Amino acid sequence: MTQTQxxxxxxxxxxxCCKAGxxxxxxxCERVDQMCCAWxxxxxxxxxxxxxxxxxxxxxxxxxxxxPLADVFWPFNAAGESSALALACASxxxxxxxxxxxxxxxxxxVASTSPEFVAVFDVLCKAAPLRL
Length: 132
Hints:
The protein is an all-alpha fold. It has one domain (20-127). Helix content is 64%, strand content 0%. Helix 4 (69-78) packs antiparallel against helix 5 and helix 4 crosses helix 6 (99-112). The chain is globular, with a radius of gyration of 15 Å. Mean pLDDT is 86; it is low at 1-8.
């Protein structure tokens, strides 16, 4: 998801700003501003490209950027694309090998999202077999 153009938002672990041009001159932004940039990216650039691209961006924010689930949920929900995040979360859930870890992950999902999101997440988790 990292872009090379200075005016294109990019997201990485421990980033100070998603715009390289701002970082180059020493500017930074708060996480809430980064979440807004993520929302703009989802709504503008990724939404027209479909669910696979949206899910990949969700995975990128969770894995490569190490954003907490609550911080990833906000822009996806605001953009009306929480189903893409639910797919990414269900995929992570199915990859967890122990029941205790799966329960802990589901608890994180419940604490970090909405009841509607959890309902979709639960259906997706039951729809596909676990990867053990």
